[in-house]
Amino acid sequence: MGAPLPRRVALGILAFGGLAAPAYAQTSSRRPGARAPDTRPTVVLDPGHGGRDPGAIGVRGTHEKRIVLATALDLKRRLEATGTCRVGLTRSRDVFIPLSERVAIARRQNAALFVSLHADSAPGARGASVYTLSETASDSLSAALARRENAADAAGGLRLPPVPPEVQRILISMVRQETRQGATRLANLTVGALRPRVPLLPNTHRHAAFAVLKAPDVPSVLVEMGFLSSPEDEAALLRAEHRATLATALAAAVGDYVARPGVGIG
Predict the structure, then answer these.
(1) What's the rounded Cα separation, in Å, for the pair 142 and 167?
(2) Cα 203 → chain centroid
(3) pLDDT digit string (tens) for 113-127?
(4) Nearest to 220 by CA among 230, 233, 235, 207
(5) Cα torsion at 235, 189, 107, 174 (round to 10°)?
(6) CA–CA separation, 117 vs 129, rounded Å?
(7) CA atoms of 243 and 225, how far apart (whole Å)
(8) Residue 20 carries which DSSP code?
(9) pLDDT given at position 2
(10) Domain 16-23+40-259 falls under CATH 3.40.50.2300
């Protein structure tokens, strides 16, 4: 077999078949005098649950959907204030969005990053944590959380380009490998930013098969900001200053990532 296709070529073929290339890989020509395109990377924030799906409900009756939306809106403001990226939301109000549509929103916007925010429920667990995609969960808690989140609905299938199946497998494998490297790097940056600011779950970077992380061409992480089943975490997440601390840490991690998109996972 000859040398592998450059990733840029692979992304171009995938985009032709329906898998859009990330913002970093796109180029465009413009007419003289036309307004310069906005080439900043797009970050899509995903406040979990919403509408008829409240998510976890805390011991004091706190709904996860409200906590994560408030944090996402704060994080959006902070990221936009830096001017380094464009920011999209899967939802900006209390509505239900299927998991597959959340992934589709990120891909339609050619997102460079996808950050899903949650505050789940798990007996005995306390502290923030970060998850990246793996078909094999890193531990029983991660597996249980993924089952809970995925039960909201089923993730949709991918549209593949009109090329032979063996070529599809090669292209998807190339893009997935770099996507997962990006997700791991973002997870490491996020843990590093959270560590000095908020309590963390032990073994903070974990892995599970969350449906919302399955976009093959968008580095994605799921951030558990804490657990509403923990009275201490619930009380903290109800405080605006604590949510602001979380948003500050996440903005720092995302900012570091988009400022140096080509840096290895380290």
Answers:
(1) 33
(2) 19
(3) 999 999 999 999 999
(4) 207
(5) -140
(6) 11
(7) 9
(8) P
(9) 44
(10) no
| Structure tokens belonging to residue 136 | 């094999």
The residues, any chain, with a CB within 8 Å of residue 84's CB and separated by 6 or more, are 40, 255, 258, 259
3-class SS of residue 119? coil
Report the chain's mean pLDDT, rounded to a whole number: 81
Mean pLDDT calculated for residue range 56-76? 97
Distance CA 198, CA 194 (A): 6
Dump strand ranges (E) for 119-262. 128-133, 200-208, 220-224
Report how far apart, in Å, the C-alpha atoms of 56 and of each of 63, 122, 228 are. 6, 9, 7
Q: What is the DSSP string of 177-196?
A: HHHHHHHHHHHHHHHHHHTT
pLDDT digit string (tens) for 143-194?
777 776 666 543 333 344 454 555 555 445 555 677 889 999 999 999 999 9
Instruction: List pLDDT tens digits, range 194-227.
Output: 999 999 999 999 988 888 888 878 999 999 999 9
Closest CA to 71 of 117, 17, 122: 117
- Cα–Cα distance measured from residue 109 to residue 172, given in angstroms and rounded to the nearest whole number: 19
